[in-house]
Specification:
The protein is of the alpha+beta class. It has 15 helices and 18 strands. Helix 3 packs across helix 4 and helix 6 packs across helix 8. The termini are far apart.
Length: 415
């Protein structure tokens, strides 16, 4: 009898896009308004702008608007799973994934849910979906993974420069045109800590030192677990490029420096040049979004693929995802055959450029209004103001907007 072997399916990201909101805040202008040195956000944190939502947008609208811009009519009946990774859901019970199914017109014969683990939630959902497809029990169907987050209001606080908003949508299938996962070698690390957390609907608490060391400990722990699967490797030679979770850009250099010091025996100056060549292009878009929580790692993916001319199909790229609380995952990917083409079609730079620059006064009005509304049972929104933003960026464009809240029921419509 001849043994029959079945090749493992290649599973990964078929399509990916980002939704960067319609407003932006300049970090140099914000630092001047706060009487701070602009060198801190620009050259230490590596944040030049942040995305901002008008009050008629929220994590639900961002998630839906990202997904609607990704999906073709042919995709809608092929999706058997919707997962939303977020720590910003407007409801403690009803998942944002239900809004995506409805407002994108996805078949009702699909499973949907929400994952929460700070900035790791999207990666957890992504990997669950990838294993579902690899198992074969997906019956040929695809998964839609969406990450969407919005920071709380922290006007005048030291960490104001690393706040932001945004969403990413990914179609996961056995046609990994963008990135294929090497699922057999993922490394994990978890450790219960209080580094950043959201104890109420309006509060967001952070402890800088705990967060910094928690991130670096998790990177080392997840990478050690990865090595246990693949054996002893040369970190520099094994991977063509590196992506690290981006709470702010400067943190990714600290991560790279720590890895290269321990596993590459590289001095600080040498590791800086190495980082600029192998990882810093990933920050191209993160530096303009600001903090995007669950989306940050995937925005870095978009930035790396869009801004590295030396990447070729099948090149290996490492990805490190971290979520406060904490959980981390280190995994290996292979660049897909249409990665540059698909990411270019997402037009992330063009979408960022199209945002309307916001004065510090208007930014503060928006943030205060959002905080005042967040727990109100009923209210209606006014679409006026902000230099006709609604007319320019929404009217007739079929973007989801929040129209009103009636006894906590959220009422959305397409513009």
């Amino acid at each position: 009898m001849v043994a029959i072997t079945t090749a493992k399916p290649r599973v990964g990201i078929e399509k990916i896009t980002a939704y960067p909101c319609t407003l932006s805040v300049d970090m140099h202008r914000l630092a001047v308004a706060r009487d701070h040195d602009p060198n801190h956000p620009l050259n230490e944190l590596w944040v030049t702008e942040r995305s901002l939502n008008p009050v008629w947008e929220d994590p639900v609208t961002m998630a839906v608007n990202a997904a609607r811009s990704l999906l073709s009519p042919e995709d809608l009946d092929q999706i058997g799973l919707i997962v939303v990774g977020t720590e910003s859901s407007p409801d403690f019970g009803k998942p944002m994934s239900t809004y995506i199914q409805r407002h994108c017109g996805i078949t009702q014969n699909c499973r949907n849910f929400e994952t929460k683990h700070a900035c790791y939630g999207g990666t957890g959902g992504l990997m669950m979906a990838a294993h579902w497809i690899a198992s074969g029990y997906n019956r040929g169907r695809k998964a839609l993974i969406v990450t969407s987050d919005q920071s709380r209001t922290h006007l005048g606080k030291p960490w104001e420069y690393v706040l932001g908003a945004g969403a990413v949508a990914m179609l996961v299938s056995d046609t990994p045109d963008v990135l294929a996962f090497e699922l057999e070698s993922n490394g994990f690390y978890t450790n219960e800590i209080f580094d950043t957390y959201r104890p109420t609907s309006t509060k967001e608490v952070g402890h800088a030192d705990t967060s910094l060391y928690g991130y670096l400990d998790a990177l080392e722990g997840a990478y050690e677990d990865f090595l246990a699967q693949v054996g002893d490797i040369n970190y520099d030679e094994y991977f063509k490029k590196h992506i690290y979770h981006v709470p702010f850009g400067g943190m990714t250099f600290r991560a790279h420096k720590a890895i290269m010091r321990r596993y590459g025996r590289m001095k600080a100056r040498e590791s800086r040049l190495h980082f600029e060549r192998k990882s810093k292009p990933a920050l191209t878009y993160n530096s303009r979004f600001g903090g995007t929580y669950t989306s940050a790692t995937f925005i870095a993916m978009l930035g790396l693929i869009d801004n590295c001319d030396d990447l070729q199909p099948d090149d290996r790229i490492s990805v490190f995802s971290y979520g406060s609380g904490s959980c981390a995952e280190f995994y290996s990917t292979r660049l897909g055959p249409r990665a540059r083409e698909v990411v270019a079609a997402a037009q992330v730079k063009q979408k960022l450029d199209a945002r309307q620059d916001t004065s510090i006064e208007d930014y503060e009005i928006i943030e205060r209004t959002r905080s005042e509304l967040i727990d109100k049972p009923s209210y209606e929104l006014n679409f006026d103001g902000f230099d006709d933003l609604y007319k320019r960026a929404y009217e007739g464009k079929k973007r989801l907007v929040l129209e009103s809240v009636t006894e906590f029921q959220r009422n959305y419509r397409l513009s």
